[in-house]
Amino acid sequence: MGIIFFQFIIIVIIITIIIVVIIITILLLLLLLLLFIITVIEGATPRIVAHGKQRVDMVVWTNRFKEEPNYFISIPLNLPQLMERLETFKKEVTDTCGKVCVCACTHAQNDG
User: Fold this and answer.
1) In angstroms, how far is the first alpha carbon of the chain from the final one?
2) What are the boundaries of each domain within the chain?
């Protein structure tokens, strides 16, 4: 009975060590990720820092459209309450600005 209990304690200690190592590894990876994400722009004057920020923003903005979308989001909009509110909206638009707006509204609804 003592040997089985001793083996059980050893297994629990090993599993605990493995879990602690995994947690430390995850925390270190998160820290490295934060170091790569957070960028400090330094400069002699506020104008130079602002210019550096603009350049970083431009690089991010131009590169963000180079990747093809790899996701699709589908939100069902055929709920009775939503359709009722759409009809109310179309009636309000008709009353406010006439037939031109209603045609645009109906066209937008048929495209979706």
Assistant:
1) 71
2) 1-61, 82-112
